[in-house]
Amino acid sequence: MRLGTLDWVPAKDRRDLLAAPVARAVDSLTEDVVVTPIDPELADTAAFCERYEVALEDSANCVIVAAKRGGETRYAAVMVLATMRADVNGVIRRHLDARKTSFAPQPEAVEMSGMEFGGITPLGLPDDWPVLVDSEVARRPLVVIGSGIRGSKLALAGEALTRLKTAEILSLAR
């Protein structure tokens, strides 16, 4: 399969291109998930899309948010298209019933996810983290996301993200 200038192969055939928690998650999925190696220096979405000729609207970002209320901090993954910004302090804060929400600090997100910063993906995250999928992501026939490492990317149907165990579909962008 080709998307942009890249050749993609089944993710189950290239576990070496996946972070360990992502490899475990891919093994449990029934959906088709493909992977391709990339230059790790080009893992950030804008650089990746420009270099490999993938449209921004075919790429989704996963951000980890920390939601705080009453001394408790809960984490959630938020999936929005690269052309959009997540409404962290509005829709997401209210949905998570938090007093305050913010992007999780990079060291915490990396440690708790078991993934590299710039490659964090909703596949393989802790079981108690909600995965909030923007409705525009869910509608994409194919969406490029992180693989848990900076040296590769995954692609799958946006709808497949809505079938993750803790997924919720919302309008998250502003």
UniProtKB/TrEMBL annotation:
Gene3D superfamilies associated with the record: YbaK/aminoacyl-tRNA synthetase-associated domain
Record organism: Sphaerisporangium siamense
One GO molecular-function entry: aminoacyl-tRNA deacylase activity
Protein name, as recorded: Prolyl-tRNA editing enzyme YbaK/EbsC (Cys-tRNA(Pro) deacylase)
Alphabetized InterPro entries for the sequence: YbaK/aa-tRNA-synt-asso_dom_sf, YbaK/aa-tRNA-synth-assoc-dom
CDD domains with a match to the protein in the record: PA2301 (cd04939)
Superkingdom in the source lineage: Bacteria
Domain YbaK/aminoacyl-tRNA synthetase-associated: 40-164
